[in-house]
Amino acid sequence: MRPRAAIPLLVAALLALPVVLAAPPAEATRIKDITTVQGVRDNQLIGYGLVIGLQGTGDTLRNAPFTEQALKSMLDRMGVAVRGVPLRAQNVAAVTVTATLPPFVGVGSRIDVSLGSIGDATSLQGGTLVVTPLTGGDGKVYAVAQGPVQVSGINVQGEAAQITQGVATAGRIPNGALVERRVPGSLQGLDTLTLELNNPDYRTAARIADAVNAYTEKRWGRRIAAERDLRTVVLHKPQNVGATRFLAEIGHLEVTPDAPARVVIDQRTGTVVIGQNVRVSTVALAHGNITLRVTEDPVVVQPDPFSFGETVVEPQTTVSIEEADGKLAIVSGTDLQTLVHGLNRIGLRPSDIIAILETIKTAGALQAELIVQ
């Protein structure tokens, strides 16, 4: 039996221990949100067209000969003879039209298109895109775009002032393209389906396979999933269920995704993102700023009276160096919360944290992948 006098000492010792709060567990996520079906993908379309109806903000045909050539070709197809006639219109702009063709989209469906000027037009506000065929990588036409252009940018200028907000030479047309050809492909008749992870990881792939097998053993009485590598999980579809219904049931299952320890740094914006699994071995560091200041104070020297000399300017340079106090601190991270608390305790700015993390990585104490953008 423990003596009573030792109980207060034991409580005091426990209260003196540092408290380390564990990071909250990762949230479970549906399989459909972290994977895609292999072969089910979008297709990119592109086309060249003309935007008409601009209020004097179109291409200068003298500086954009391709716009004049396209305009003449369009008028020729309409029966208007303009060959050899110089055009001076400023209400037409040549644009590149792009769109994304979703999988399994049918003929007659509508998709959004985006367009941007390729000439010297100053604004596409108020313009209308004429019929523009959109082709895929195989050169075949899959959609045709046409309609009024929506522009969010503003570009207004006068003789002595100009106001610009956003990009006025780019816009979009919601539901502006009509699908004319369907991309071949279907899930019907496939006995094997492959799931691709959006963020490849071995443990996540294994968890997906385990969750699917646990469900299918109760649903169909057998295991049908197997992880192939860190990126793909193979599913053998039961014969008595369709592919669409099968993927709907599998995609609703929840798993807890895992990810490698990673630190992402964006030096342009000073953004630092530290993953949950990042660990830092115990290191001692000191960080201080050094300021080098060079000041030029030129001095004007006047000649003596009646010396017939000249006034000259002599340079005078003052150089000073200031070094801020740097505190030596011990930083160790057994979990993400402890690491962030240790960096904040030193009182660092984002640029300082970036420099410290890069140096800790060089020293071999940062147990994570460091990505600098």
Radius of gyration from CA coordinates: 34 Å
Form type: flat
Major β-sheet, in short? Answer: 6 strands, antiparallel, barrel
Measured distance between first and last alpha carbons:
62 Å
Poorly predicted parts: 1-24
**Which structural class fits the helix and strand makeup?**
alpha+beta
Provide the number of structural domains: 3
Q: What's the pLDDT, averaged over the residues?
A: 80
> How large is the count of helical segments?
7
Helix content: 10-25%
**Structure summary, number of beta strands:** 24
The spatial strand order of the largest sheet comes to 3-4-5-10-7-6
β-strand percent reads 35-45%
Task: Report what the structure shows.
- With 373 residues, the protein is of the alpha+beta class.
- Helix content is 21%, strand content 35%.
- The chain has three domains: 29-37 and 187-255, Gyrase A, domain 2 (2-Layer Sandwich); 43-179, no CATH class; 263-372, no CATH class.
- It contains seven helices and 24 strands.
- A six-stranded antiparallel beta barrel has the order 3-4-5-10-7-6. A four-stranded antiparallel beta sheet has the order 2-11-13-12. A three-stranded mixed beta sheet has the order 16-15-24, with helices on one face.
- A hairpin with a 4-residue loop joins β8 and β9.
Write the layout of secondary structure elements.
Layout lengths: L5 H11 L12 E2 H4 E3 L5 E10 L12 H13 L14 E10 L8 E8 L10 E8 L5 E8 L5 E4 L4 E4 L4 E10 L12 E6 L4 H18 L5 E3 L4 E5 L6 H9 L2 E2 L6 E5 L4 E4 L4 E8 L3 E7 L2 E3 L10 E3 L2 E7 L4 E6 L2 H11 L3 H14 L2 E2 L1 E4 L1
Parallel strand pairs: 15-24
Antiparallel strand pairs: 1-14, 2-11, 3-4, 3-6, 4-5, 5-10, 6-7, 7-10, 8-9, 11-13, 12-13, 15-16, 17-22, 17-23, 18-21, 19-20
